[in-house]
Design goal:
There is one protein chain. This protein is mostly helical. It has one domain. The protein has 5 helices and no strands. Helix 2 runs antiparallel to helix 3 and helix 3 runs antiparallel to helix 5. 26% of the residues are buried.
Amino acid sequence: MQDVALVFGLITILGGVYMAGVLMRVGRPFSGATTTRLSPAVVFSHGTVAVIGVGVWMVYMSYQDKGLAWASIGLLVVAVLIGTVMFLQWLKGKHGPVKETGGDRHRLAEQQISSVVVHGHGLLAAVTILFAVLVALGIGD
């Protein structure tokens, strides 16, 4: 089951890399996006904490130290919390009143990310943490 958690974590990271790539297209000629409401610091910290969390999980898999498993889970939970902030910004831009979005809805880079990708990324992150917690608790070994 620890391998399953790793696979879900890696797939989640790939989805995140795709979304970060969309955000980095702001201002490019082939992109209709002229701005983003997501802070680069928030985006970078979310990705960094998540990758470190999955990296710690890989170290756990080598040493089988439960402390490493829980450290990985803690990092992944922090990544989810930061991701939730970004999700709420994305949701506000997608469904918020035009007054709140400043009429820029169609020019926001984050609005060029498919809803399926955003929701799938969050679901995969939740499943990753679920499997990691089950492994850390000794369930399903």
